[in-house]
Amino acid sequence: MKAYEAYCHLNPDNHVVWQNMGVAHILLLDKVKAQECFQKALEINPDYEMPRKNLRILKDATKDDLKRMVEEHQLLWFNKGG
Known about the structure:
Layout: H1 2-10, H2 15-27, H3 31-44, H4 49-58, H5 63-72
Helix pairs in contact: 1-2, 2-3, 3-4
């Protein structure tokens, strides 16, 4: 996580890193921070579909849902799509 945070600080306009940091926050079960990162990715690149899809997935997700998503890899990971 610290690597993403450092990279985002050095390159705040990199939408892919913000998307990936959002996924990292999901792995930590931090829905709020994940949503913030996905929103930031969309602010930088409004056409970037991956964070938009992840925000829809997270909209009504509970902590138990997050745990299941992590286990089942249901989020769109690191530019692989899904």
